[in-house]
Design brief:
It is found in: Nucleus membrane. InterPro entries: CASTOR/POLLUX/SYM8-like (IPR044849), CASTOR/POLLUX/SYM8_dom (IPR010420), NAD(P)-bd_dom_sf (IPR036291), RCK_N (IPR003148). Keywords: Ion channel, Ion transport, Membrane, Nucleus, Transmembrane, Transmembrane helix, Transport. 45% of the residues lie in helices and 15% in strands. The chain starts with a helix and ends with a strand.
Length: 768
């Protein structure tokens, strides 16, 4: 009994000891949980103060807004009120300006609102809970970041404050989501509208938009095909999506070339920087559609903007102009960076050349375009010391036609003397398929082919007056290339030419025709411009009709799309008829083409009905694929009588007429696009084209084969070339009598073949 009692007492003492230890540990935990620093312990009055402060700060914006509204109303109701903007509108305006001017204002305002919400929410929670201020601020952030955290709150006060903070957090994150969405949308919208910067170099930059752009892009793509494709950047004052859609409609095969469109103005330096203008290898400025003077004025301002680029220009500028008179200004502004192509002048001179030599337009299309053979200039050190007559037969896959003489400051000499010796630094101008398809080889053995003696009448002496001064006046006076022998001159015969329509440069065309045509030729002008006004326009353009030597002008007034007006003309007696894109409608390509097409069809129909012995001619057949009794067939038959050259602005109309074969050839803006692309690829080619289209120097001719050979004679192409050199000519191709197209830079130049006197040769020769 005593033993049991002793054991129970011992157990009781152990339990008391354990109870004392537990009480001691609880006291330590309570002390550790107290806030440190100056022994500060928050009390109930401090929590109430925090709650009041949070409510006061929250109500200040509402009170301030009511005060501003009250002040505005009181000022409007006063008798001495002077009309002025209310205070609340002024505050709203200042806030709007702040948010608009400063790019980071919206994110900064959102950050401030978030911090205020966390701070006010933390103070409110500190006032309604027993937690510390740090814990309340952290709890406030969790309510802002996750609105579901308020579900754990207990009590009316904490729940009310938690719901309020969560509601503010939802507003904060909604605004943040809106800002992020707007930023992403603006970025994609900027990409869609072409406002982003082009990070490229050695690209071709095209400034402007016109109907020539499609053909230009096609030619640039063909030129870059051998390089695996290139980069072409187009910048115009149009929407990027519209430009890409219009280019896609053309369905061109760009052959690996990438076309990048950007929306912007070439007159704004920031937009030019956006397309990396300083790193482009060539900049093409397209002439705008519309008035010629306005288009050239805009091109001039564009050149001014390009010359003002701080980083400078790596490449050259190719400017398309509409009026020859504005060329001097553009070159004055652009200096050595600028090459100009006067579209109107090029088309006008080509029309004259093609009217006098049917088939020449196809030759020009082959040479200007990159699809066949074109001009290339390259240095070949192994040819130094050779005479030009040996250089001519040194390239089996190309035809040399000139030299870029280093001793003459890099001047390109077309058709030089056979005795010209290539010096160090000289480059050779050739016609070849591509820049990597030709190279000089060992000189072949060419059989001596004596020239066939054909007596030609001597050229009559001429008296020439040079009015004005040109920088190349010395080259015009000193014809150091040599003169053509008198008995090699092809005699000229009188011609009768009709011009339908009126162009801005009509006086230039008349002067060129007066220089080209034989004495006694007639030039008929048929348009709706009154005769007195016509003479005044020609006089204002610098033409003195009384000083014309070889041609006489015959004026007829009428509308070229009215049949009875055209029937008053002797259409069957003209050697050549030139249908011009009339000045009155040239601003609209479709309207100008419609007018030209109507004139062409009417002329061919009238000619067909006036043809003598139509039944006899039908029995012998004629070119074309239409039936002999059809209306189209009669017009094709009429095309055998006279040459009609039509000026067409839209390439689609050109393709239509080419298939119908009722016009000998159609000249369009496509040739201008080819010239622009060629000059963009190599600016030196512009000097070659300028000489071909000038009134002096060399040009392309189509010669009859009887000037070089007899019927059935077997000669190689090199032997024909050798005979042509006795006439100071370079043969670049031929067209056989039964062929539709000419062959430029023919292969197998040293192989013998039989020729016919009905064949023709394409040569480079001095203008006669």
């Amino acid at each position: 009994m005593i033993l049991v009692r002793f054991v129970l007492q011992d157990k009781i003492s152990q339990l008391n000891t354990r109870l004392q230890v537990c009480n001691l540990l609880e006291s330590v935990d309570f002390i550790a949980s107290l806030p440190q620093g100056n022994g500060y312990v928050p009390n109930k009055s401090l929590k109430n103060s925090a709650l009041v402060v949070s409510l006061t700060l929250l109500s200040i914006p509402f009170l301030l807004f009511k005060y501003v509204d009250h002040v505005s109303k009181s000022r409007r109701s006063s008798d001495n009120f002077i009309e002025e903007v209310s205070l609340n509108k002024q505050l709203a305006y200042r806030v709007d300006v702040f948010l608009s001017v400063h790019p980071y204002a919206k994110p900064l305002a959102l950050l401030v609102a978030t911090l205020l919400l966390i701070g006010l929410g933390g103070l409110a929670l500190f006032g309604v809970t027993n937690d510390s201020l740090a814990d309340c601020l952290w709890l406030s952030w969790t309510h802002v970041a996750d609105s579901g955290n308020h579900a754990n709150s207990e009590g009316i006060g904490p729940r009310l404050v938690s719901v309020s903070i969560s509601f503010g957090g939802m507003l904060i994150f909604a605004m943040m989501l809106g800002l992020v969405t707007d930023a992403i949308s603006e970025k994609f919208d900027s990409l869609r509208k072409g406002k982003s910067e082009v990070v490229k170099q050695n690209h071709t930059l095209v400034l402007g938009w016109s109907d020539k752009l499609g053909s230009l892009l096609n030619q640039l793509a063909i030129a870059n095909e051998s390089l695996g494709g290139g980069i072409v950047v187009v910048m115009a004052e149009r929407e990027k999506e519209d430009m890409e859609l219009d280019i896609a409609k053309k369905e061109f095969d760009f052959r690996g070339t990438s076309v990048i469109c950007r929306s912007g103005s070439p007159l704004i330096l920031a937009d030019l920087k956006k397309v990396s203008v300083s790193k482009a290898r060539a900049v093409i400025v397209l002439a705008g559609d519309g008035n010629a003077d306005q288009s050239d004025a805009r091109a001039l301002r564009t050149v001014l903007s390009l010359t003002g680029v701080k980083e400078g220009l790596r490449g050259h500028i190719v400017v398309e102009l509409s009026d020859l008179d504005n060329e001097v200004l553009v070159k004055l502004v652009g200096g050595d960076h600028v090459e100009t192509v006067v579209a109107h002048d090029v088309i006008g001179r080509l029309m004259i050349q093609c009217a006098r030599q049917p088939g020449l337009a196809q030759i020009w299309e082959d040479i200007l375009g990159f699809e066949n053979c074109e001009f290339y200039i390259k240095r070949w050190p192994q040819l130094d010391g050779l005479q030009f007559e040996d250089v001519l037969i040194s390239f089996p896959d190309a035809i040399p036609c000139g030299v870029k003489a280093a001793s003459c400051g890099g001047k390109i000499i077309l058709n030089p003397d056979d005795s010209y010796v290539l010096q160090e630094g000289d480059e050779v101008l050739v016609i070849a398929e591509d820049d990597d398809t030709y190279a000089p080889t060992a000189l072949p053995t060419v059989k001596e082919a004596p020239f066939i003696h054909i007596t030609r009448p001597a050229r009559k002496p001429q008296k020439i007056l040079l009015c004005g001064w040109r920088r190349d006046i010395d080259d015009m006076i000193v014809v150091w290339r040599g003169h053509l022998p008198k008995d090699f001159i092809v005699p000229k015969s009188m011609e009768k030419i009709l011009l339908c329509g009126w162009r801005r440069d009509m006086e230039d065309m008349i002067m060129v025709l007066d220089a080209f045509l034989a004495h006694g030729s007639e030039l008929w002008m048929f348009n709706d411009v009154p005769e007195q006004k016509r003479e005044r326009k020609l006089s204002d353009g610098g033409l003195d009709i009384n000083r014309l030597v070889n041609i006489s002008l015959v004026n007829r007034e009428g509308n070229a799309v009215i049949r009875r007006h055209l029937e008053s003309l002797p259409l069957e007696s003209f050697d050549s008829i030139l249908i011009l894109a009339d000045e009155a409608v040239e601003d609209s390509a479709i309207q100008a083409d419609s007018r030209s097409l109507a004139t062409l069809l009417l002329i061919r129909d009238i000619q067909a009905k006036r043809l003598p012995c139509r039944e006899d001619m039908n029995s012998h057949g004629y070119r074309g694929s239409f039936s002999q009794g059809s209306w189209m067939g009669e017009m094709q038959q009429a095309s055998d009588k006279s040459v009609i050259i039509s000026e067409i602005l839209d390439p689609r109309t050109k393709n239509l007429l080419s298939m119908s074969k009722i016009s000998d050839y159609v000249l369009s803006n496509e040739l201008v696009s080819m010239a622009l692309a060629m000059v963009a690829e190599d600016r030196q080619i512009n000097d070659v084209l300028e000489e071909f289209f000038a009134e002096e120097g060399n040009e392309l001719h189509i010669r009859q084969a009887d000037l070089y050979l007899r019927e059935g004679e077997e000669l190689s192409f090199y032997e024909v070339l050798s005979r042509a050199r006795q006439r100071r000519e370079i043969v670049i191709g031929y067209r056989l009598a039964n062929a539709e197209k000419a062959v430029i830079n023919p292969p197998a130049k040293n192989e013998q073949r039989s020729w016919s006197e009905k064949d023709v040769f394409v040569v480079i020769a001095e203008k006669e």
